From TrEMBL:
Entry annotated with the keyword ATP-binding: yes
Protein name as it appears in the record: Phosphonate ABC transporter ATP-binding protein
GO cellular component: membrane
Superkingdom, natural source: Bacteria
Taxonomic lineage of the native organism: Bacteria, Pseudomonadati, Pseudomonadota, Alphaproteobacteria, Rhodobacterales
UniProtKB keywords: ATP-binding, Cell membrane, Membrane, Nucleotide-binding, Translocase, Transport
PANTHER family: AMINO ACID IMPORT ATP-BINDING PROTEIN (PTHR43166), PHOSPHONATES IMPORT ATP-BINDING PROTEIN PHNC (PTHR43166:SF6)
Amino acid sequence: MLDVQNVTRVFGDKRAVDRVSFTLHQPGFIGIIGSSGAGKSTFLRMMNRLTDATEGRILYEGQDILPLRGAAARNWQSRCAMIFQQFNLVPRLDVVANVLHGKLNRQSTLATMFNLWSRADILRAIDILDRLGIAEQATKRAEALSGGQQQRVAIARALMQDPAIILADEPIASLDPMNAQIVMDTLKRINVEDGRMVIANLHTLDTARRYCDRVIGMRDGRIVFDGTPEQLTTGVARDIYGADETFNEHATSTAIRPERAVPAARVAVH
Ligand SMILES: Nc1ncnc2c1ncn2[C@@H]1O[C@H](COP(=O)(O)OP(=O)(O)OP(=O)(O)O)[C@@H](O)[C@H]1O
């Protein structure tokens, strides 16, 4: 269903993404890991057509999405929703309005300008918020919510597009461990219950192991690991991150450790 062939992005003399290829036959939960600058965000941005590729093809159900322009590119973007580390909500708008913005690609400009949402759309937005456990926040301004709640609003906005794929660029990097878990559980439910493919850039190994069916490791723009969470041993992780034997993967953990009062450090291998 998704066939990525030799996708490359060059910035000046830097090959940010270098001949990346992989195939997904099922709408699984895929994690992409790698140290800072490995090319993870650039790859997701190419998939979502926010960044142009220099070379390669991304076939989704047989169609190459990389040459799409204008309305066709926007149509692809609504099939392939993206969420970001910083949530990218409109802070002063209320939660429901933010969720309804997920329909922007499919709504006329005039209707959007005057916030003319149909009753059916508003009810659907509230239903999605309810499913994600935040319906009671619907009338609040987005900026009044906690980070974890804001990320769930961003997921609700993505679901409003009814996407086949959700791309998540470090979705929990700004969250405390408790909220990180709620957001990851939400993404997993959407994957399992709805059959939507999730591809997430993740900065912690324990998260990749716990939630993903398949993990792709990137280093210097290239795929250096592609396997199951079980195959992602400490030694493999050390290679992906280009770390030496002092590499301590517990330092990359987001786990909630009840026996410890202080949450573990979020990032150590960036
Ligand atoms: N617009 C750009 N112009 C020039 N270089 C860029 C641009 N975007 C990314 N790069 C470079 O491409 C490389 C890959 O960056 P990218 O953001 O994709 O990495 P990443 O793995 O997502 O890192 P991080 O975890 O820090 O977000 C880096 O060397 C980065 O500096």
